[in-house]
Design brief:
three-stranded mixed sheet, alpha/beta, 373 residues, 43% helix, single chain
Length: 373
């Protein structure tokens, strides 16, 4: 039986991971530690909130002593560290919070694990403990179109404040294994999409804008490439690494699924047109959408100023995680995107709830006066 401390469990991937773990590891206990920043949402944990194995603590990973107290109190065997500031555009407008949470917050957790697991418990049962750190492919920088995908030995070359803060955290995690013998693993994943994703990221932003008939802001020429993975597949990969990965190792996770941004936006437009054409209820629920009156959703595509320092291409070579821990994605992009669209259509109160909070301010700040048709 494992007792997990999941940081950032009220965010997009963290909440999906909590759902995954509770349904596939009965008998395990989960403590979620989450500061509930703008990105954290208790509604994403509602389906598990009354489960006897689930506890929620509102708190900041940067708070000295808090994580150590939780490790002792709940006799935590496994830390799964998602908590982070995660949006590249926000890191460009205001990097400080990224350095605070992503670097110093990760260090607080590492110190707590070292103190409780290695010092106070004198390393007893350490073979059964694990600190799993969730990282990103963005630490490797940008690829040219002819470059091979990133492997675990690709040099670090982070280009945004977000990516630099995640790279710094990865180095600290590595150092705590090398220097103190803390049993760590790290996974560096590509772009996720799916249920509960905050509508500041490309796919959910486009979906909610399509439904309400707002412009679809495509940065630059729209030809930047990302490698997309359905979030439940990412959660399965993390599960495989926690259970079968070797301490001290890093694993790249991706879907071998490269797409240009503009092609994704067009694909979403065509799915939306198709859904509205066959479902009269959608046409009356979302009258602001062009598809509600039979117009093509693509009319909303709007090229806007490029993201500063915008990485051109990410791609992951997932051979190691497939070979060493047996990970294999279960969704294709087609099935994953259709599930995602259905989820957003069936969970309107979830995303409307976000848009009624501080969301409007962010959209105003990020996209104001940027539309250039
Ligand atoms: P998210 O922004 O949706 O959620 C982050 C969560 O962390 C929120 O619940 C927030 O309240 C919480 N949090 C933020 N600061 C905190 C603090 N100081 N203390 C405690 N909790 C805090 O992020 P996400 O997209 O779910 O990403 C989760 C992790 O996965 C991050 O580490 C991110 O770098 C990594 N990652 C994300 C993707 C992706 O495509 N979204 C891909 C690869 C890796
Ligand atoms: O690669 C993994 C990373 O993926 C994670 O580490 C990050 O936490 C996550 O946010 C994501 O970063 P990206 O910057 O790749 O994701 P985002 O959804 O913000 O953007 C995807 C692409 O779409 C990127 O090339 C920028 C572009 N884009 C994004 C937005 C929000 C647009 O063209 N228009 C937009 O409005």
């Amino acid at each position: 039986m494992r007792r997990l401390l999941v940081t950032g469990g009220a965010g997009f991937i963290g909440a999906n991971f909590v759902h995954h773990w509770i349904s596939s590891h009965r008998g395990d206990a989960i403590v979620v530690l989450d500061a509930l920043t703008y990105a954290g949402n208790m509604a994403s944990l509602e389906p598990v909130s009354r489960h006897s194995a689930f506890h929620f603590i509102r708190g900041d990973v940067c708070t000295q002593g808090l994580a150590a107290e939780l490790l002792r109190k709940h006799d935590i065997t496994t830390i799964v560290h998602f908590a982070a500031e995660s949006h590249v555009d926000r890191s460009i407008l205001g990097p400080d919070a990224f350095l605070q949470t992503n670097i110093l917050g990760t260090h607080e957790l590492l110190k707590a694990a070292r103190q409780v697991w290695l010092e106070e418990r004198k390393g007893e049962g350490i073979e059964a403990r694990r600190f799993h750190h969730i990282s990103t492919d963005e630490v490797y920088g940008s690829l040219a179109s002819s470059d091979p995908p990133f492997t675990e030995t690709s040099p670090y070359a982070p280009n945004s404040p977000y990516a630099a803060s995640k790279a710094a955290a990865d180095h600290l995690v590595r150092a705590y294994h090398h220097t103190y013998g803390l049993p760590v693993t790290t996974s560096n994943c590509s772009n996720n999409y799916g249920p509960y994703q905050f509508p500041e990221k490309l796919i959910p932003l486009m979906l909610v804008n399509l439904l309400d008939g707002r412009p679809l802001p495509v940065y630059g020429d729209g030809l930047n490439v990302r490698d997309w993975l359905y979030v439940e597949d990412h959660c399965r990969a993390i599960d495989c690494v926690i259970n079968q990965g070797a301490a001290g190792q890093t694993y790249n996770v991706g879907g071998r699924n490269e797409w240009r941004n503009l092609d994704i936006v067009r694909f979403l437009c065509s799915l939306m047109d198709e859904a509205f054409a066959r479902d009269a209820a959608l046409r009356s629920r979302f009258p602001g959408s062009p598809a509600a009156t039979g117009r093509a959703s693509e009319e909303l595509i709007n090229f806007v100023r490029d993201r500063p320092g915008h990485d051109r291409r990410y791609a992951i070579d997932a051979s190691k995680v497939e070979r060493d821990v047996g990970f294999c994605p279960q969704e294709t992009f087609e099935t994953g995107i259709r599930k995602t669209l259905d989820w957003f259509l069936n969970h309107e109160p979830w995303w409307r709830g976000i848009m009624n909070r501080s969301y409007g301010e962010w959209i105003q700040r990020q996209y104001q006066s940027e539309h250039r048709g």
